[in-house]
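Reviewers asked in the last cycle whether our approach scales beyond single polypeptides. To address this, we selected a multi-component target totalling 1312 residues and predicted its structure end to end. The input consisted of the following lines:
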Amino acid sequence: MGIVEEAHNVKVLGSGDRVTVLAHGFGTDQSVWKHLVPHLVDDFRVVLFDNMGAGTTNPDYFDFNRYATLEGYAFDLLAILEELRVESCIFVGHSVSAMIGAIACISRPDLFSKIIMMSASPRYLNDVDYYGGFEQEDLDQLFEAMGANYKSWCSGFAPLLVGGDMESVAVQEFSRTLFNMRPDIALSVAQTIFQSDMRQILSLVTVPCHILQSVKDLAVPVVVSEYLHQNLSSESIVEVMTSDGHLPQLSSPDIVIPVLLKHIRYDISTV
Amino acid sequence: MRAGLSTIQQTLTPEAASVLNHSIAEASRRNHGQTTPLHVAATLLASPSGFLRQACIKSHPNSSHPLQCRALELCFSVALERLPTAQSANSGGSPALDPPISNALMAALKRAQAHQRRGCPEQQQQPLLAVKVELEQLIISILDDPSVSRVMREASFSSPAVKATIEQSLNSTSSNSANTAGPIGLGFRPVIAPASTVAAPSANRNLYLNPRLQQGAASQQRSEEVKRVIDIMMRSKKVNPVLVGDSEPELIVKEILRKIESKEIDGVLRNVEVVHVEKDFTLDKTQMVAKIKELSTKVGAMIGNLDCGGVILDLGDLKWLVENHQAIGLAGGVKQQQQTVLEAGRAAVVEMGKLLGRFGEGSARVWLIGTATCETYLRCQVYHPSMESDWDLQAVPIAARAPSPGMFSRLGSNGILGCSVESLSPLKGFATTTAQPRQTSENFDPSRKTGCCPQCMQNYKQDLAKLLAAKEFEQSSSELTRPALPQWLQNAKAHDSDVKTVDQTQTKDQEVIWTQKTQDLQKKWNDTCLQLHPNFHQPSIGSERFAPAALSMMSYNSSLLGRQPFQPKLPLCKNIGETLQLNPHLVASQPMERTSSPPGSPVKTDLVLGRPKTIEITPDRTDKERLQDFLGRIPSEPQNKLQDLQSNKLLNTSAESFKKLVKGLVEKVWWQRDAASAVATTVTQCKSGNGKWRGSCSKGDIWLLFSGPDRVGKKKMASALSDQVCGAHPFVICLGSRRDNGESDVSFRGKTVVDKIAEVVRRNPFSVVVLEDIDEADMLVRGSIKRAMERGRLADSHGREISLGNVIFILTANWMPSDLNFTSNGISLDEKKLASLASGGWQLRLSLCEKTAKRRASWLHEEDRATKPRKESGSLSFDLNEAADVEDDKAADGSHNSSDLTVDHEEHGLTNRLLSSSTSSSASHELLNTVDEVIVFKPADFGPIRRDISNLITKKSCNIIGNKVTIEIVDEALEKITSGVCIGRTGLEEWTEKALVPSLRQLKTQMPTSEESLVVRLELDSESCNRSHGDWLPSSVKVVC
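The resulting structure, written as structure tokens, was:
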């Protein structure tokens, strides 16, 4: 097993001609796809991996400089694809990973046949003519809380983000993976993500994008998906799902999995 | 020694020679006895934008701060200070001779030369003088010098790492094919230093890899360093190591101490206690002396213990001796503080010295171990000069980790995107500097010059290809043992010196055999050619060639040019293809011929450009032109050379060569006369350094934008230009949606357009590259191209940058400046239609027949064309230009291109289109401004072209057969000829001379003498169709009586 595969806990499951890469977002790891994977393994080669900084990765490998921008993660993604000699893949990116995929596909459009963006946002901060859902003060408070007491921040943040009560399985699950992260790394990752502004690159994307979005999501307002649709230079399609929360694949798999499967299996013209 | 020097300088390229000169001057200034590699290194480092400096910065794994280089400079200047000065010679005050070159430097120069010769792959051993040592090679061999390495180590730079960086940059710009074919490139050298041990496990390293993941690889290096430190501690003098370096030396100390504490080490270090003292000292400087005294007692007690074999004092980072943390932020009193720190430090040094002295003897010893950054250690040396000897210290430089993985290692914080593209390429600084000399040297490769006529050349190439295939197979099979790598990594691996050392000798042998084989093959074909086609080798058309090297040689002894008499020997060599096997004698003699030959006598500089595969020698190209081409490429105009070594000023364009170029272009594309002359003007101007952007920096690349709807004309012009300038086909890359030509190379599949361009440029640094339909290219591609224009370098999608070399780029677009008046009322040239007409292996015949009363009025008439059944009637319509039918279907601007009555309408529509396209993409405007010249192609009509052709044919036949017999050209035939001329590469004149004229002559001999009523008919010959595929025009015309 290569060094990259090991470091990112890469798992390749299933069989098929086509490759689907599932990339998790902030505070989770590849287990976030557990409801989806069983439906894919018959038709696809499914690549699962953990982003650097996730609780399941070795914190020694987390280079704060490298991961100060999303490009660091994009390089990791490309490294994995190169290592596995993937020639073309369907990339499913959740949350920040959707943007990571977008960056990577600008660099290597040949590697991506399409990108499925789940709960993606090019920018979380509000701006003139742009509604991202957060004000700088919100974020400052968030970072402060993270730095002050990570544990309690986790237990507060998880239900908010997942959109359920503390007792629900999804929230428990998310809290677990979130708390698995080393606090300083989590803070750095969160800062990188929430301060990122990927609006400029949207016009450089040439790979078809499927934008999936929960109707109610604390982190990503629904208008953002429309913004993506408008600003991506490639073909794109938006589907707003009736699910709730930022991690709908975990919290409402019954709604989300069929939609995801549909978008993985069919291209924009046939969806 | 003086004589030696001038000989040496002749083996160097101008840049390298000037570095050497500066070094000698520096040595002389410092009054040194000899010029050593240190002087050269210091000189190389001195220029702020220097190559070495950048390589040093890049090679440094942790920091790319320029300050690092400052430290390096300091170290070098210290090292230079230490050199002995010349004792006697200069004391007289007379400006004595320059300090001679030291043996070490001489060795380095020889190494450089050897590497340079070896660095040129796939060729026979070159004559010694034909190889010029490039700056990069000089740097590399200077880095190999032990004294230089040592100084670099002192400044915590690893010379192997720096070397690796340079080699990487060299390889990345040098010809790809050569490097992938056989690992005999520049990286082909055993690297002795630790860097290579790191490189080994990383053979299949991923370009995008997180550098942190390579820590495993580093551990090996670390263990070596641990061993070195322990060796130091075991010896009897200078036993106290200080690990100097910026790459976490404390980790190594930790490792050593762990080993010692866990008793893993035998010998004197077996029963040794470790005391960590750093913490005691960092907090309060004033207490340091007291602390050390305390420590001394403690150590005494420990040693008193019988079990104890000694004590190691871990001093930690020595910065506590020279820095004061408390001082930070206190504006006032900083100096004061600093003073006290220094005093305290001095006292501490003395006290520690005492401690060591006290326990220095006896069975139990006391060791010190510490770490320092390069800067700290330098400071220690400055502020506490006695410390090194008092403490019995030995500085152990900790080599920076090898940078080879680090193509992207610092990329995390940089970017893939937007403006940060620049940062994507760590080699950016190098690209331009390296590429130029490399490409020049590629021309020096004599194996690529073959003295054959095109036909034999073709055969030779085929054989060569077979050989090459066989060779590649051999190699690939030998490589099977290694893990397969993705294609893009192969390159990187080729640099991996460690892998290489293993099979170095083997490949070397293979390489020798290979060169031998190629040579034999070449010889074989040259001989065959000489026998088969003696004409080609006649002085009249045969080209007598001398290698470019000969000319640049001249630059050093141009004074000879005037004097030397014509060498009578030359005609002997002239006709022989073997002349190419350049030898020093010819080098000396041939330039003579050039200057002494009377004007107009055929002296040819056949510069073979690009890959051999694409070479086609056009024998009728004029000497001047060739010489011009050649001089345009090599920035060494002999006459100026001595006065102005640095100057890249190219030969002034002589009006004559310009005219030749125009003539060549006009001959092929006569219907675009204005455009042809514009192209010629721009190209000659740019080559002489007067291009739009050539004011300050001279770039070899030329950018032309062919705009206008005459697709065929643009294509033909590009091909003609390529033929004139490089004697080869242009490389055509389509940026738009049009994919009609079957030129899609298999190797390009799955590559982005920019990668394709990069690939082509990399392989053919002297060529014409046509980027078709730039107006249809997507924004990304246009952006890259624009950046490439501005910067002279092209970044591919991996972020690797390549220099554009001397490529002439031709962008084609359908835009027209909107103010252009159209004067078209004929049929536009439709490429597809022409192609379908010209294809099909048609033949022509000339026949005699009775003059009929019902002669066609005019073959120019279009009416019968309309009656012909056509599939693509839409495209046949009388549209003004092709632009209209490209995408306009969607545009729905009301234009239907239906008839010639709609000229105004049409024009209007076109203008609209232009407006809309230009507003929609500001990039197009930017492109217009960035290219060297925009060349407008008028919409072309089919009619006049056909008329020209028929006129010409009629004229020819009149000349040959006489006025009495008229020639009638059958419409279909004329149409086919026209299409063939337009699409193919052959010029009209050329074709008529070659194919038609002989047949006309033949016809004349067979013609009955006094037959007034005869008509010669040029028509299609349906019976024979055995024409070789690929030609658009028949090579001969059958005569039927």
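Chain B has 44 helices and 16 strands. We regard this as preliminary and will revisit it once experimental data from Aim 1 are available.
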